[in-house]
Specification:
Oligomer: single chain
Number of helices: 12
Number of domains: 2
Structural class: alpha+beta
Strand content: 5-15%
Shape: rod-shaped
Radius of gyration: 31 Å
Length: about 300
């Protein structure tokens, strides 16, 4: 089957105005589809990065109100944690850093040395099993009775669930746009059949089969979809790059994870080809089915 219609085929279908309309429609469809796909892929990458960063990470809080005892328990807890083979990293959070984190809520009062701010210890574990967490909890409780253990993965789980929901929604939008594209192709193919009904009857009298006639439409529709899709994909890709630059400028660790890898960009670049194949199949099914009913 020829990919590019001949000059005779183009004259036969009188496609100039319809071609321009179909191309722009497909450009818009692919623009929206690529944006939705980029959102889904970027959110998925951010969710994976967030899960990898938070897996096996604990925060130990020493909530002893007396400063001297709080300091002693913190030192003992740090020493006990460093002796555990399951612990890969231990870091006591500096008081100045805690003050900076609390400033939006406490204002300048957070710097008051008499304010009993709990001591925090960041802990990274090599294993996230329940047995490991139990051993860490026992070791800390033995030297710091007022200590509390918080798994960062647990209190960030709502964020991870939300990102998973956004990823699923984005991929559902891609599927919806694919279905809408197939519907547009079917409508365009049927409209073309009605427009060229007399010409098609002449072709049948000259010996052309339904398959040969359908190829005239499916080639044209496939090319319109591909060229329009390439245009929409390029515009959407530029928009994605611009948004990515804006996200990096914000300096947020969570938002900076919304990035696309090489494989993601390849998937987005293949969307015009995939939609052209989809349009070809939809046009073929629509035209052959309609020809069997009306002729």
């Amino acid at each position: 089957m020829k990919l590019v219609p001949s000059a005779a085929d183009r004259r036969l279908l009188d496609e100039s105005r319809g071609t321009r309309a179909m191309t722009w429609i497909m450009a818009i469809m692919l623009f929206l589809t690529v944006l939705a796909g980029a959102l889904g892929l970027g959110t998925r990458s951010a969710a994976v990065l967030l899960g990898r960063q938070l897996a096996g990470r604990l925060t130990v809080q020493i909530v002893e109100p007396v400063e001297a005892q709080r300091s002693a328990q913190t030192t003992a807890a740090v020493a006990a944690l460093r002796r555990l083979p399951e612990v890969t990293r231990v870091r006591e959070v500096d008081r100045a850093e805690l003050t900076s984190l609390l400033r939006p809520w406490l204002g300048s009062d957070g710097a008051d040395p008499d304010l009993p701010i709990p001591a925090l210890i960041d802990v990274d574990l090599g294993s996230t099993s329940d047995a490991t967490l139990a051993r860490v909890a026992r070791a800390v409780a033995a030297v710091a009775p007022t200590a509390r253990l918080d798994r960062q993965e647990s209190w960030m789980s709502p964020v991870a669930d939300f990102m998973t929901m956004v990823t699923g929604l984005a991929f559902a939008l891609v599927m919806l746009m694919a279905a809408a594209t197939a519907a547009v192709v079917i409508l365009a193919a049927r409209a073309g059949l009605e427009t060229h009904r007399d010409t098609i009857e002449v072709l049948h009298m000259l010996g052309s089969t339904d398959v040969q006639v359908s190829r005239l439409f499916q080639r044209r529709i496939a090319l319109d979809t591909f060229f329009g899709g390439v245009l929409g994909t390029v515009l959407a890709g530029g928009m994605v790059v611009l948004i990515g630059m804006q996200l990096r400028a914000l300096g947020s660790d969570l938002l900076s994870g919304l990035t696309l890898g090489t494989g993601d960009w390849l998937l987005l670049a293949l969307m015009p080809v995939a939609f052209a194949l989809l349009a070809t199949l939809a046009a073929r099914a629509a035209v052959t089915g309609a020809l069997g009913r009306i002729l």
